[in-house]
Amino acid sequence: MNKAADKIMHGLFLVCGLIAIACVCTITIYLIISGIPAIKEIGIVKFLFGTTWASTAKEPMFGILPFILTSIFGTLGAILIGVPVGFFTALYLSKFANLHIKKTVGFVVTLLASIPSVVYGLVGMLVLVPAIRTVFGIPDGATLFAAILVLAIMILPSIISVSMTALDAVPQKYEHGALALGATECETYLKVSVPAAKSGIIASIVLGVGRAIGEAMAVMMVSGNVANMPKLFGSVRFLTTAIASEMSYASGLQKEALFSIALVLFVFIMLINLVLRKVMKGGKENA
Prior knowledge:
By secondary structure, the protein is mostly helical. Helix content is 79%, strand content 1%.
């Protein structure tokens, strides 16, 4: 009976894995088929390095360099803010906080993760954008800076929860050994626990990067959604928002160009995942 159950579960897991692989392959093939024609017609250099996006003009132009740079700067900014805050919050909750604080903050983190992105965008548009306009004395607070702050908040739940799980999983004998050798608690946690949980912490950053790059609705509501070259206090448009804002009425070459943007975004995310996986693998080998 146990052998039969094991075979059934093995087959079920295999089918689920094959379905996941099939979905990824289908999406990849569809994006390639849909995105390549526009890149060929526009020209890969003009498409990737052109600085003007005027898809509805009499003589349309399809340069997406502003979108690419905006997505890169927005993601990097969110990581620079969100990763340190998320990591040190996870470290505090895992190693320093008492059980009551850990449960309370853990509940808040779970709540943050469950909030729809449109709510983040709405709060950002009604609270954050006017605050930036007032504090910095600029005409419009819907800027790249506002998008970075919203994205930094949105990636916190992933970083905190996954990093905390990784830190909790570190065997206590590692920490007890370091403490027995005379290390302080801070030295033990930073030099023993964190390296031991490195793979999980990097995995949390991967999840955060994925959410930051793939977010559309929230950043559309707080970034101004204008196809400008990125400036910290200027209105900008991300790769994701370019697709979301025009796909509903696009046709012809414009629609094909939007699929090409989706293909660029897909390749961009794949490259980041490959780089981070390489870093994780290198960290395991060095360990």
